[in-house]
Amino acid sequence: MTVLDKFFQGDQAALARIISFVEDNEDGYREVLGKLYPKSGRAARIGFTGPPGAGKSSLVNNVSKALASNGKTVAVIAVDPSSPFTGGALLGDRIRLTDMPTDGSIFIRSMATRGSSGGLAAATGNVTTVLDAFGFDYILIETVGVGQIELDIVDACDTVVVVLVPESGDSIQTLKAGLMEIADIFTVNKADRPGAENIVMELNMTLDLKRDQMAWDIPVISTEAVNNIGIDKLLEKISLHMDYAVKSGWLEKHRRKQIRKKIYNILTFYVNGMIREKLAEMPDLERVVSDIYEGRGDPYSASRDLVKLSGMTFNNF
Ligand SMILES: Nc1nc2c(ncn2[C@@H]2O[C@H](COP(=O)(O)OP(=O)(O)OP(=O)(O)O)[C@@H](O)[C@H]2O)c(=O)[nH]1
Ligand SMILES: [Mg+2]
Predict the structure, then answer these.
(1) Helix, strand, or coil here: 80?
(2) Domains of the chain
(3) Which of 138, 140, 157 is closest to 59 using CA atoms?
(4) Residue 97, C-beta contacts closer than 8 angstroms, at least 6 positions apart
(5) How far apart are the first and last CA of the chain?
(6) Ligand 2 centroid vs 94 CA: distance in angstroms?
(7) Going by CA atoms, what residue is nearest to atom 23 of ligand 1?
(8) How far does the centroid of ligand 1 lie from the alpha carbon of residue 53, in Å?
(9) What ligand 1 atom has the least distance to the C-alpha of 50?
(10) How far apart are CA 166 and CA 171, in angstroms?
(11) Is the dihedral of CA 128, 91, 61, 232 positive or negative?
(12) Given a cut of 50, is residue 143 above it in pLDDT?
């Protein structure tokens, strides 16, 4: 029996092997993804983003346990920024998703960003496809809100929960951080701390200015992940957003956009790889670089010449 047969029988060891295979772009990974893709698209994909230490993992932990206790199967992708500048709550303070049920209802996978947001996006999207095809009801993706990364994740999710804390500062900062644009649901976590009500109010005031232009009325709730408070409310909002997404036709539009983007990404990845390979096998690349450096050429003509030499054809190049 092949790994893929085992995968389709619901074997989680086979699932883990296929994820690694896809993540590492091993030979034949496109064919495997091609077989899995038509079986994907059924899972609800929920993203959790927000500043380091806001309580994303704690919330994902509670939400996945609540879903599992309702009989749902859940996969969690924890996107772990490896850079000390972008990631991590205060050292040693972060929650690891370890104390989970071992009955197979929750599957956890960490992915390191290794500082590359583009590669991360491709790998996360592919891993999401694998998990979706495996048949999980929910896929929860955790990412730190540091710019490019969470924008990529938005594309991979249907519902985005932005997690803030009372210390997050005023809502103007939030707007600046671009989190306003990507949120479907706001939760002010650590509501056991002072200032939570204020930030809920401020967020609502900022949103009120735009509510008449919103097709989906973005809710702002508060949670205390450590005390398991507000999780039901969060689940209710997630489910309302899913209903809205399906009924309004937004989900179909979103999925179509994802497919277009997927095709673009696959082609870009392929063409980039091809160019890298061609450049690596150019024997006189260094001479061309020297010519340009010493003023005897320019990178535009050199690129055109390289294309001709390589046998690649691009029209109008
Ligand atoms: N007081 C309080 N602390 C909380 C709450 N939720 C989480 N924490 C604590 O905040 C710290 C960080 O929580 P995490 O869940 O690791 O936060 P995170 O957003 O996943 O952090 P990174 O992934 O490192 O960005 C932990 O010590 C949690 O116990 C809460 O509702 N109230
Ligand atoms: Mg975390």
Answers:
(1) strand
(2) 41-248 (3.40.50.300), 262-310 (no CATH)
(3) 140
(4) 57, 60, 61, 64, 76, 78, 108
(5) 49
(6) 6
(7) 88
(8) 5
(9) 19
(10) 11
(11) negative
(12) yes
Beta strand extents in 18-73 (DSSP E only) = 44-49
CB neighbours of 195 closer than 8 A, spacing ≥ 6? Answer: 166, 167
Ligand 1 atom, smallest distance to 61 CA: 15
Its sign, for the CA torsion 259, 216, 209, 175, is negative
Query: What is the pLDDT, as a whole number, of residue 172?
Result: 58
Work out the percent of the chain whose per-residue pLDDT is above 70.
Answer: 85
- Enter the DSSP assignment of 40: -
Buried b or exposed e, range 51-71, using 16+ CB within 10 angstroms: bbbbbbbbbbbbbbbbbbeee
Which residue did the predictor score with more confidence, 180 or 234? 234
For 110-147, the DSSP string reads: EEE-TT-HHHHHHHHHHHHHHHHHHT-SEEEEE---SS
Would you state the pLDDT for residue 150? 63
DSSP H helical ranges for 177-249:
179-182, 196-208, 231-248
**Token pair of 29 as six digits:** 């990974």
Residue 78 Cα: closest atom of ligand 1: 23
